[in-house]
Amino acid sequence: MDSIQLLTDAYGRIRQLVDRVASDLDHDALVARPDDDANPIGWLIWHLTRVQDHHISEIAEREQEWTTGWSDRFDMPPDANNTGFGHTSEEVGSFDPVSSELLVIYQGAVSDHTLEYIASLDPADLDRIVDRAWDPPVTAGVRLMSVIGDGYQHLGQAAYVRGLLERRG
After folding, report:
1. What is the CA radius of gyration of the chain?
2. Most exposed residue of 59, 74, 132, 143, measured as fewest CB within 10 angstroms of its CB?
3. How far is CA 135 from CA 18, 129, 146, 151, 157, in A?
4. Could you tell me which residues are beta bridge partners of residue 8?
5. If you count DSSP H runs as helices and E runs as strands, how many of each does the chain have, helices first?
6. Can you spell out the DSSP letters for 19-40?
7. Which of the 8 DSSP states describes residue 129?
8. pLDDT above 90 (res 76)
9. 40 preceded by cis ω (within 30°)?
10. Per-residue confidence at 169, pLDDT binned at 50, 70, 90?
């Protein structure tokens, strides 16, 4: 298995896990917070998808899905830089994910574009520097792996919250 196949598998799993964690949740479950400052499932899924959309679009040099109409579907401004990073507890608490179906469909659209981009890569493309603001500069491969790590981290958190909610009945 080569690096492109590994990336394809890893991003494909994110899509599958989003579907498993978020599908069939009602609105109350999507916005439930285990405590006043905890992140709810809906926000976590939206955030990990926004990060993927933002970062992959940047390195693929294409427009984000968010700004092509998805922000309207979530009734939010089309701010391309709003990924949820730095949101206050109040901002997280006021996030309204609309529905689990919308979250899953948005993740699917972002996933499709991610996998399309990855399929276009040659392994040497992973060494292209995409961000010189860091020392050492960030390559496309490092950025792709960073998004995977972020996605799995937030999926684990969302699955944990779902488990808490299910145990509470």
Report:
1. 16
2. 132
3. 33, 11, 15, 23, 30
4. none
5. 7, 2
6. HHHHTT--HHHHH--SSTTSPP
7. E
8. yes
9. no
10. confident
The span from the CA of 164 to the CA of 156, in Å, is 12
Residue whose token pair is 């294409």: 62
Q: Quote the tokens at residue 151.
A: 């996605």
Question: pLDDT per residue over 90-120, tens digit each?
Answer: 999 999 999 999 999 999 999 999 999 999 9
Superfamily of domain 3-168: dinb family like domain (1.20.120.450)
Q: Locate the domains of the chain by residue range.
A: 3-168
Q: How far apart are CA 158 and CA 135, in angstroms?
A: 32
Residue pair 49/76 in contact (Cβ under 8 Å)? The answer is no
